[in-house]
Amino acid sequence: MTTPIVMPKLGFSVNEANLVEWMAADGSPVAKGAPLYALESEKSVQEIEAPADGVLKILKAAGEVYEVGTVIGELV
Amino acid sequence: MTATPLNNVNMVQAIAMALDDAMEIDASVVALGEDIADAQGGGVFRCTAGLSTKYGDARVRSTPIAEQAIMGAAIGAAIGGLRPVAEIMLMNFMTVGMDQIVNHAAKLRFMTGGQTHVPLTVRTATGAGFGTGGQHADYLEAWFAHTAGLKVVAPSTPADAYGLLLSCIFDDDPCIFIENLPLYFVPGAPPVRGVRLPLGRARVTRQGSDVTLISYSRTMLEAQAAADALARDGISVEVVDLRSIAPLDMGTLLASVAKTGRAVVAHEAQVDCGIGAEIASRLHRELFGRLKAPVARVGAARSPVPFSKALETEFLPTQARITAAVLETMTP
Amino acid sequence: MNEPLSIPDRATLHEIYRLATLIKHADDRFIELIKAGRIASPYYSPRGQELIPAAISVSLLASDVVVTTYRGIHDQLAKGIPLKPFVAEFMGKLTGTCKGKGGPMHITHVASGLPVTTGIVGSGLPIANGLAWAAQLRKTGQVTVCNFGDGATNIGAFHEALNLASVWKLPVVFVCQNNGYAEHTKYEFGTSSRTIADRAVAYGMQGVTVDGNDAIEMYGAARAAIERARAGEGPTLLEAMTFRFRGHLLGDDGHYIPKAEFEAAVAADPLPRYRAWLLAQGHATEGQLAAIEAANESAFEEAVAFGLDSPFPPVSELSTDVIAMESAS
Lengths: 76, 332, 329
Description:
The complex is a heterotrimer. Chain B has twelve helices and twelve strands. Chain B has helices spanning 11-25, 51-55, 67-79, 98-105, 108-111, 141-145, 158-169, 219-232, 250-260, 275-287, 309-315, 319-330, and strands at 29-33, 60-62, 83-90, 121-126, 151-153, 175-180, 203-206, 211-215, 237-241, 244-246, 263-270, 296-300. By secondary structure, chain B is α/β, with parallel strands linked by helices. In chain B, helix 9 (250-260) packs across helix 10. Helix content of chain B is 36%, strand content 18%. Chain B folds into two domains: 11-185, Thiamin diphosphate (ThDP)-binding fold, Pyr/PP domains (Rossmann fold); 203-330, Rossmann fold, CATH 3.40.50. Chain C has helices at residues 10-35, 51-57, 73-79, 83-90, 124-138, 156-167, 187-190, 215-230, 259-267, 270-280, 286-309; strands at 65-69, 116-118, 144-149, 172-178, 181-182, 185-186, 206-211, 236-241. In chain C, strand 5 (181-182) and strand 6 form a beta hairpin. The A-C interface holds A 4-12, 14, 41-46, 48-49, 51, 68-69 and C 32, 34-38, 40-42, 249-253, 255.
């Protein structure tokens, strides 16, 4: 089952966040709970864990700002 | 003028009757506020005189000077199944309890998805004319009418005060009942005891055909005087007493203005962003093309309430300014 | 404290553990769901404060009521809010406790004795007084517990409410969960009194400071205050010392908390400490605790699945519950 990786809302008045970097390689297997990517919103950088097991398929590049709710990748 | 009938009452007496009758028939009706119990004088305007003696000081409580505490206690008691009537001595002091009123009383029914509701009544007095100055005479009804979840009522006669207060007390949502200082002592026909007047219903107090004059609370006195004087000059003014600010009785207002084609709204609150603005906007929208003139608004001057009598008198919406507004709508 | 604290019975000790670990599990899962984009809401984590409501709730009757705040899932879960509508409300679903219209800051469940949850700091205290006044008038014996943080003790409503509660001798317990920070401001920078309990004397009521991270101490102080209220002896100000591990709001990086202080708090995490104590004192076996943890997890997962599967409220819900429909003009 493919799990979408969705840009979360972390903070009070944020509707977008900066995808700072991917912490796993595109195409690599990732375990649930492992660090997956870093995002910056409001004032802090947060590490986001993988929501499920799977092979990472990156859909959006790091270094850009995306709206909350954007599917930035998938775990296949 | 005819002699005052012996059984006339004033608004203080009418309010006191309503509270007494409500507390008599329903043990869940309670009252709280500064100085309201008999040991403290039965209320600074004596609207609650006799209640604590008759119903006990568990149900009728004088409070410290603490509007957030007063409003919060009323809200919690209402959620807990009582029907509290909180007295906020003067409308300017509502501002001290705004969080409780606007963030809680108004919103809890909605935010809880209907699990709780807040059947409280706030009685509050205001009105210029006694030199009480900038912080003791404001009309703030527009702020509360602007808040979903609140009902706002402003009677102009003792009989209306009685019937509307009963309805507020037994309404299942928060009601703000606005009393006026000069009106407290104006006598009028007594109410029919036990009869509630429905909220959201205006009353045509004078039939007319040339122009509709809409008002409420103390300004009704000036409006009626203006209408009487204009009648002698051959202008037929229909006078409507709103009685409820929220919800507004647009049905009655639209029927009247559809008939006359002209409207003037007069209130003691500031003109800018006042209730008159809301009414004018709705009349313009619904009756566009059928109006003979734009809706005129008369209200207090754009300043805080001044102290000096010379200024205070001119600050208020006078009979002269209401008359001028009516004549303005009559000018082709 | 010189006298030995009385230890509650085993069933109570286990119940405190069950509630505290349910809260921690819920907190962990909500954060996972938020980070996975399944819940979009500001989130105020109670991680670190679980033992406080767990130790209080075991002394409450189902008919007692709890007032809490936007940082309130621990108070709500401890009071016994049903999990499915609780999680659904977090997700903004129609099947939520408030039909999705209140959200995490206003979780309300009247049937569980959770009638008011507020997003305005300090505003629950005056309302708690009202609930207590109704109970006093009707002689129901009901106790109102009102939760708030150290930050709330500097706002006007706190002072007005404590004064009134004392003057009217209301059956209310004011629980200040002192986690040392008012948003990003450390206690000493914003609060003029040495402790919050010190303020009780100004309002003519009993003030007690306890270690909110010690289940037995918290249990004892809460029980005494609840009994005092129920007996008509008036309100108490309970100050429960604690710490919050996840900052004010999820997304907060906690830069304002000195590193050494944070590390010391982590080392003193009240949950593993309580767990270890239960085992060491022979109040529970590993098997019993593991069973409690597993039951919590499976019940919560059911609730998460329920929430994810539930529909959002229809647009018509915007115009319901504003005022009673019968009187709408």
